[in-house]
Fold TEX30 protein.
Amino acid sequence: VKVKIPFGNKYLDAIFSLPEEKSTYGVILTHGAGGDMNFPHLVSLAAYLASHGVLCLRFTCKGLNIAYRTKAFKTVVEYLKLSGDYKLSGIFLAGRSMGSRAAASLIRQISQEDDDDSFIQGLVCLSYPLHQPKLQSKLRDEDLLFIRCPVLFVSGSADEMCEKQLLEGVASKMKAPKKIHWIDKANHGMVVKGRTTNDVMEEINAQVFSWLRETVEREY
């Protein structure tokens, strides 16, 4: 279902992937610095989640300013929270690359300004861009260290923007319950020599869904 979400004086394009039966929780998903909500990995994950009973709302927000992207993400969260059509008891924020930074930034923001942030159940970071290529000294970890809700990282072990030891070091300092799933030999774009895109996506999708299910079961 295509929707247009009011955002300032314009609209954000978004698409609901709906499960056959009514979902109790959902996932909001967005793209990285390039591309849009039709990035193949996002389409694949949204379809997988919907086919396994989880509502997924993915949206496009162009722009390379992290504060702007975070604001857009907040608008989409509010939209879904107030939507009369889909009464959800909780949602997970998810993003790829820069989209996961925006999601983490929003969760930190909400937790600092709102006592009741129980609507957000967790965070899924696909290819979290922990640092720029070859700039390992400047880590983008400040938001992650403030987060309290469960976090899943799905990263490639050869990601040039997220060195394995560095992410493991950040995770060890995080106060939130967290899990890292490494895609062996994958780069930032989740490309693995000798494996098809579909094969890699199946691994990612299954990981995300099983983690969502475990997290929800723990909550309830």
Remarks:
- The chain has one domain: 2-47+57-115+122-217.
- The chain has a mean pLDDT of 93.
